[in-house]
Automatic annotation (TrEMBL):
Gene3D superfamilies referenced in this protein's UniProt entry, alphabetically: NAD(P)-binding Rossmann-like Domain (3.40.50.720), UDP-galactose 4-epimerase, domain 1 (3.90.25.10)
Cofactor: NAD(+)
Species of provenance: Occallatibacter riparius
Lineage: Bacteria, Pseudomonadati, Acidobacteriota, Terriglobia, Terriglobales
Stored InterPro entries: Epimerase_deHydtase (IPR001509), NAD(P)-bd_dom_sf (IPR036291), UDP_G4E (IPR005886)
The protein's name in its UniProt record: UDP-glucose 4-epimerase
Amino acid sequence: MKLLVTGGAGYIGGTVAGLLVDRGHQAVVFDNLSHGRQDLLPQGVEFILGELADRSHLERIFTEAKEQGSPFDGVLHFAALIEAGESMVKPEIYFRNNTASTLSLFEAMLSSGPRKLVFSSTAAVYGEPEVVPIPEDARLQPTNTYGESKLLVEHMLRWMNQIHGLRYASLRYFNVAGAPESADGGITRGEAHEPESHLIPLILDVALGRRQSIRIYGDDYPTPDGTCIRDYIHVSDLADAHLLALDALESSSRLIFNLGNGKGFSVKEVIESARRVTGHPIPAELHPRRPGDPAFLVAGSEKAIKELGWKPRYTQLDDILRTAWAWHQQRYNK
């Protein structure tokens, strides 16, 4: 298949693009490089620089591919801003980038592109959960505008499917971590955000001596150790699920799946895991809560395991941290 991967120069999108090539597909990455890294794209991936809001550019890409006799078979949509904390300070840019720009993509697809899409959604659409692990039919009530911006896209997808026949899979996941390992055990890419804001790479920065300590935002949550609990999924397991969802759209027109470990880890537990993996004491500092952070966010993924045949390989937090640590050392100790 020939697939357009929006946001494919990012951490998750790039991992999926690499897996597509490994599986014999043609991956075309579309990215504005505001957060992505073109130098980390896997070999064999075509790159197009562009803005998701530029509907005419997207239409030209789809039209030219048809005219050349090599039309796109589908789209994997990762392009988005992802920082929940920032979204509570600048909600307008999240609705513009995550919601309005995605509408431009949908319009281009309906005008001249494929009618099959896998959407990178988030467990943040659930907000403060009423049941943990969270099932796919749980109430959707985001507590931050990042989650709301993604939920609005899901609402648009439902109507695009009902009215225009756009086939889609919406994959809801939360904390993605780790680095993809090649068959020989090598690692060529991983998280590389600038500036970095995700917990695991920030913790590993401390282990490398790039930071003095890691911040814990709140220890008064209703959890066993008072810190937020999140579901961590390895990026390679996540990539596998995207390809399985793409295949499932051959026989289904609307799919929604949670993707996660099925068990949560607190901030303090993640720090302890990193101490074991790195052998570093990793000092921690306590800071006030951040607005919009739910106490528990664990996405049950039994449905994906049953219906997609998805089999996560990295189920232990230490194993996820081990690959992240290998990438982190490789990235900074050159």
